[in-house]
Amino acid sequence: MSEGPVSSSPNGVPDLPEGIMEELASRLSRDDAPFLRHLPKQLSLQWADASDNRLGYTRFEFDHHELFRRRRLRGSPGPITIALHPRLKDDQKLYLHTLVHELLHAAGLVDHGNRHSELVNEIAPAPKLSESPVLRSMREEVIAELPEQSWICGECGHTWQRRRISLPQRCPKCARPFSSR
Asked: pTM for the whole thing?
């Protein structure tokens, strides 16, 4: 896929990148992904509600008992909807990563196991924080909601603005292991 915004079809739904289904088919066995062959007929893409806190989700119309039965009998999963958050429109790498993640669920890999993670990272690796405006904005939103907006070194008293979610390892001034007062 090229860089830049994600394209949508004329009716406003997200586009399925060309060749993505073939890429999945080449890496998945029928046992891994029993629903893959049904996706061209059963899958629909849509934009999720902007207030949703997930980047994407996969919704099957049938309950998990019926899906388990259809998986075992190698039947059709019925209608499947993948909804992607609209903020992904401006972040092509994260869009593709999220779409592949959800397509694997739709194909039948419903657990977030090692196989699922390996496939997503092989087909569409997650962008680095520096490459993703969406990930950067999400980090800023989380940091803004945290109670500590700055750190104070317990050794030298140096104060600096918080830019990370995790606790700092060392003070940037005295380089001693970080300890708060």
From this structure: 0.82
